[in-house]
Amino acid sequence: MKSSDQDPLESLALQVSGISKRFPGVLANDKVDFSLARGEIHALLGENGAGKTTLMNVVYGLYKPDEGEIFINGNQVEIRDPNDALAQGIGMVHQHFMLVPVMTVAENLMLGHEVTRGLKLGLLSRVDRQKVSEEIEALVELYGMEVNPEAYVHELSVGEQQRVEIIKALYRGADVLILDEPTAVLTPQETEDFFEVMRSLVKQGKSIIFITHKLKEVLAIADRITVLRDGAVVGMTKPAETSEKELAAMMVGREVLLRVEKKPAQPGEDVLKVQNLHVLDRRDQPAVRGVSFIVREGEILGIAGVQGNGQAELVEALTGLTKVIEGSIHLKDSDVTHARPRAFTETGAAHVPEDRHKHGLVLSYAVDENLILQTYYLAPFASGLNINPRAVDENARRLISEYDVRTPSIKTLVGSLSGGNQQKVIVARELSRDAPLLIANQPTRGLDVGSIEYIHRRIIEKRDEGVAVLLVSSELDEILSLSDRIAVIYSGEILAIIPVEEATKERLGLLMAGVRETQESSQAAATPME
Amino acid sequence: MDTVFFVGLLSLALIKATPLALGAMCGLLCERSGVINIGIEGMMLVGAMTSFLGSVIFNDITGGTLPKTVSLLVGLLVAMLSAGFIALLHAWLSIQYKVDQIISGTVINLLAVGITNFTANAYIDPNHLSGVGVFTEVEIPILSQIPIIGPILFQHQPLVYVMLILVGFLQYALFNTRWGLRTRAVGEHPRAADTVGINVNRTRYINVTLGGVLAGIGGAFLVLESVGRFQKLMTTGRGFIALAALIFGKWTSVGALLSGLLFGFSEALGVRLQLGDVNELQALILLGGIGVAVLGAVWVILKARRRQEDKRSMPLVVGTLVVGLAMVATALLATFPEVEIPIQFLGLLPYILTILVLTGFVGRAIPPAAIGRPYEKQ
Question: If you placed Cys at A511, which of A31, A220, A488, B376 could pair as Cys (CB 3.0 to 4.6 Å)?
Fold first, then answer.
């Protein structure tokens, strides 16, 4: 390892000072100072849009800073592009993987500076897959991460792809690893494994910058924590000297309720009744396989599971967006198994969809128009063939103030709002329709702590008003803090439905990974569905 | 039908497939790097005209003192440069100005029609320019003496060999060289390529321009190895058929050549039928049979590669293959009455085949993932 023969005085692997980066209308980084000691895991914590990723993109050479300096091992360097960064020993694992799916692991690793054999013909030299594969095998052995160099990337699971990304950085000779929200796509178990990998990397002398907005993970793994807010550093601390509450307050700039306060549920009558539901996915493969559950008035049923285990298709079936192959769906007293989407909204299902851009909003419409997407044809918004602008206007003003949507005006295009405010527009529209059932699919994905707190509170309020809530989420914390009962979905089947009091992260994590509970333990631990 | 007829037919099919394969390789370079190119037709048309003008004018200037091959080579070079220049325009519009690439391609096609028709009306026709001639056939020693294969593959004009070499070379290069790896990465996941220091837009510029050069050769072929002079709109949709061949060939040069051969074969057959020396009905059943059999065979291979999933359609797939082979056998063994088929209909053959192929006869072809989207740094 390079680090072992370094002068101990130059113990800082990376230091940035006074970095500023402006985008049109935004100051993304404001004189940021940050340092990374050798062999350290330094967490960079902040809400979405706080400037974490921008800062790291500057370090990695993807952005040019407007001012500021970067030092590596004590020497000032200029990083103009990722090649410079790689040459300086900086590797980055992006939130969205930078792997070409139709290429093999070996091809992906050598891309950009290919190993060649035979005649030296510049760009037309023959690439040497064999040699790269051997080099990967050696790295794999050294760091104990299993990866097959000849596998095609699209055949790998998300966790495996992440390992490929890390090996890619190591293969390029990275001593400093920047990991951008690496745990967002992992199950709790995979996250544990991932932390092990991080610890072993540090033991080998690597230094890690860990970007995240998850407080628990920061406290579990980091040596030091730097918190960013609105592009500026608001503090630097150590896990031993702080708490989740304090970190959250630093991130948001005010006190934040981390755990939603809620009374015990008062379940009433059945609202949504799903029996033996089968649904196919887009490629006509079974996605939901024999799912049954009930959601009652005044309770929240959480559906936990790693993304891609049939949740998307389940929700589509429950909102009439996809065909049901077998089984039935009853909403209140009517059979809506084969109903059209509009029948669902009219029978009383409110839906906060998973992808707010694709399914929740019309981005090129204004806020007021987005607020009447399901009701535009009804009074008071419609009069004959015309839209009644005054009613639309009034509705928008009322909802904006009631749901705290921060928008310059009701005529602003929804596409130009921040993610949190876009989500609030959807929540306002759906919750204001007074439907007896609320289906919330990943309602807080990608939102910051402040918005999450707000949306959670609204969902609990709805429950207390007697609405039946179906919450789909891959965030265990969210499931645990909101749900009254928790159903775990794996590979299109519900493996167990357990009351929240009996649910622990470990137990849910195992179920989410597809480990079925044995008969005795599940009977002992869980009250089966009524 | 005898062997001589077949050898002649297949040899002609290879000749007819040459501009298609060259056009398809133009599309290959563009689309593998992420730029849609529906302007192949226009690039070929410009190449055809400039090759003619280049060779004629050079011949005039030198006063015929140099051998005609030199003039023809100059024509070829001019075609490559001018079509490359037109392709550079396409790249500039779609990369620099992020113009919708379909629109940009359409612009190229309209522009090419305008320029070439104008030049033909204003310069070529009034001056009664006639061509310098065509490249002479080059028989490859030894290989051309092999019975059957020799006359089909090794007794051609030089651009046919150039095409064959390019097909082999691109197939190798796209999957085995640094350039190929980078080009595919840029077409599939440009941001990933960017993060490892590959210049996405430069890669696209280079590939699109080189693609234009290939289309230029394809256009030049029509003049320098076929009719010997320029006629208005002489590409007659070959650029679009080339695009179909590219898609049918799953964005590989060998695949494009094979599907180009299918189109070339139908065109060759149309030509032979118009000469009236074969039984038309028999020939059509033969062509249909070969087409269906090829589709069936490709389908079987694809199914086999996907292994166990979806066995249900296997009878249909194998059935297609069997029906195709049966049609071929019938055509060869049975005797048919003489039926007159209008010449115009025979000329339609390659186009009908194009429609059949594009309506997805063999399942969906998956294009490069980032195709058609300009790259934005963020």
Answer: A488
